[in-house]
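not sure who needs this but someone in the group chat was asking about Ascorbate-specific PTS system EIIA component from Streptococcus cuniculi so here u go. i didnt clean anything up, its just raw.
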Amino acid sequence: MNLKKAFTENKSIRLGLTAETWEEAVRLAVNPLIESGAVKEEYYHAIIESTNEYGPYYILMPGMAMPHARPEAGVMRDAFSLITLTKPVVFPDGKEVSVLLTLAATSSDIHTSVAIPQIIALFELENSIERLVNCQSEEEVLAMVEESKNSPYLEGLDLES
């Protein structure tokens, strides 16, 4: 599961979107994966339900959320999508988010061993949230993913598959 490859194959980078609510932002973030067939519609509903039940546990850092649900909630194949918002939305815990990176993983192992290190590597780049929000093209986002490949978090990972 390769972040760059997943973004490209699923055509799942959408920049400068507008959402009024966190639910709408999650919808915008999941839509590219529904459109590409990586997840079923139920995946979106599972994220909303788990957020309502457990809170937005997937806000990983100020300004950034990684909405996801269980593999059995409609995941057809491993994939990522990334959206940026023109203005942040407020989640139920009061935190503001302007970058949403949706994860669809077919297993918990992929989620923890392959997906999370790549996401950490991308978001540990200096000013990552601001830089992503300012990206004007898919190519600029992919260049940041490429830049993140030097991260120590990715040592020993096979990201070519």
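also The mean pLDDT is 93. if thats useful
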